[in-house]
Amino acid sequence: MQALTRSEQDYLKAVYALAPGGEAVATSRLAERLGVSPPSVTNMLAKLAAARLVAHTPRAGARLTARGRKRALEMVRRHRILETFLVRVLGLDWADVHADAEVLEHHISDRVLGAIDRLVGHPHEDPHGHPIPDRRGRVRRRVLLPLAKLGRGSRAVVRELRDADRPRLEHWKNAGLVPGAEVRVRQVRPLDDVFELDVAHRRLVTGSEGLEGVMVEVQKGPPRGAHGPGGRAA
Amino acid sequence: MQALTRSEQDYLKAVYALAPGGEAVATSRLAERLGVSPPSVTNMLAKLAAARLVAHTPRAGARLTARGRKRALEMVRRHRILETFLVRVLGLDWADVHADAEVLEHHISDRVLGAIDRLVGHPHEDPHGHPIPDRRGRVRRRVLLPLAKLGRGSRAVVRELRDADRPRLEHWKNAGLVPGAEVRVRQVRPLDDVFELDVAHRRLVTGSEGLEGVMVEVQKGPPRGAHGPGGRAA
DNA sequence: TCCGATAATTAGTCTAGGCTAATTCGGTCC
DNA sequence: GGACCGAATTAGCCTAGACTAATTATCGGA
Q1: Does at least one atom of strand C sit less than 7 Å from the CB of A47?
Q2: Gap between the Cα atoms of A222 and A203, Å rounded
Q3: Average of per-residue pLDDT across A173-200
């Protein structure tokens, strides 16, 4: 297991984040996500390809090899364990810990990571609801839908808040949209793009824009199908 | 407060470590301590001098400015708080945590450091007994002597184990030489370089070499003076 | 006073990982 | 089929912080 630089780790993580299923990712998308120029990406992809961590077909994008995927999942694991620790042990706000975890994930030794993992009880989910890969890189797969895709009458449980900026996470938290919260869709007005929800027994009215990134698990036996905007009848 | 790179922080720390009292430090000593070549040191000192963190008189060594000293003490504080955390919260072995703290001290945000400091109860000493500077950079000064300097009959309390390699710390720990332990000098045979000590009521026989770096606070009313190798009479 | 040993500095390279400017490729549209 | 457009790559540069080799300053002793 060859040591990777911080940049290399960041690139692998980015490829994984943009294509968790192993699809090819375009140079420009990586550049955008990492905040670097496209030539820098091409350059680093060449390096990672030489190390057999990605397969890079010029002008057709890059995809992770099995080894690259393993390393990427390792970083995801580190990140999520650290976030859990920062929230549960240090008492930091979960809307706030991303940046710290982002730095620390590259610099914590396996020994310290192991001790932290033990301390927080080997969690399977981080504070935003994201699953934590195990040491072998296996991720529990879940069937999640964007909350905005639910139809009227659906019941669901919030499972993940996909990384977003701090104010948005803060907003969701205030609205009660936290992992584990129960949600019921009261009304959907597609033309107005307005959703009326009950979140933990409180009424929330919002546009679909405000729900972007809230992923839910649909509860069995909703009155209507979970897909599509749904009709008007109860 | 201008951000410093990791290397800059390391150089400042090294200057402080080699001259806590503010004396000038030779290029070669810094090179040796940091494991870099002397030209690298000259180079970095020029940079730090430009930032007014050290005063560098060519061929006469470098000394910290007030600002440089403040930054150095900040790193010392970070390091020691982290070591305390790694031992007390994560349960790692105190002979073992130096390297981890050495890396993390550069990458932990003030927010996380503050939370860790709170969690461990704002300690004044790290696990090796070193005093932890407060936020304003003040260090509690103590009067410490090397254990090997004590005369026969002296009583003292172990206060610090100055950074050494892991096996040596491990050895001291096994011998009971830990911060807070009481020591009584039973016999000193300067010609043989042999010390016989009672450490926490257990007998320890060792050469002065094996005591290098063990710093103690002498207890009031020892039968003989604490300085010098001492005579042969009780 | 001058000489030599030793420490320090200067000069010039190297690597990682960025950047901009210029070029090339591949797909789309006429 | 050819021209064009945008994305990607190549070419060339920059900075931090290392390095080695060459040069210079300083200090102690004869």
Answers
A1: yes
A2: 19
A3: 93
A42 strand C contact, CB < 7 Å = no
DSSP assignment of A72-129 equals: HHHHHHHHHHHHHHHHHTT---TTT-HHHHHHHTTT--HHHHHHHHHHTT--SB-TTS
Q: What is the pTM of this model?
A: 0.90
Cβ neighbours for A102, distance < 8 A, ≥ 6 positions apart: A79
Residue B89: closest CA among chain A residues belongs to which residue?
Answer: A119
The CA–C1' separation of B11 and D18, in angstroms, is 14
**Which residues in A40-57 are b (16+ Cβ under 10 Å) and which e?**
bbbebbeebbeeebbbbe
CB nearest to A112's CB, from B90, B111, B115: B90
Q: What are phi and psi of A145, to 5 degrees?
A: -120, 150
Angle between helices A66-88 and A110-119 (to 10 degrees): 50
pLDDT in tens, A23-82: 999 999 999 999 999 999 999 999 999 999 999 999 999 999 999 999 999 999 999 999
What is the β-pairing status of strands B155-161 and B214-218? antiparallel
Least confident of A114-123, B118-127, B218-227: B218-227
Tokens of A34: 């990492």
Cβ contacts of B109 on chain A, cutoff 8 Å: 99-100, 103
CA distance B69 to A26: 48
The span from the CA of A197 to the CA of B168, in Å, is: 64
Asked if A19 has any chain B CB less than 8 Å from its own CB, the reply is no
Residue found under tokens 């000098």: B185
Q: Using CB atoms within 10 Å of the CB of residue A231, give its burial: 0 to 12 exposed, 13 to 18 middle, 19+ buried.
A: exposed
